[in-house]
Amino acid sequence: MPAVAFARQVHGAAAARATGGGSAGEADVLLTTTAGLPAAIVTADCLPVVLYDPQVRALALAHVGWRGTVGGTARAAVQALAARGGAPARIVAAIGPSIGPCCYEVDQAVLDPLRAALGPVEPWITPRGDGRWLLDLWAVNEAELARAGVDPGRIANARLCTACRPDLFHSHRKGSPGRLVTLAMLPAAG
Ligand SMILES: [Zn+2]
Question: Which fold has domain 5-99+137-185?
Answer without folding.
Answer: CNF1/YfiH-like putative cysteine hydrolases (3.60.140)
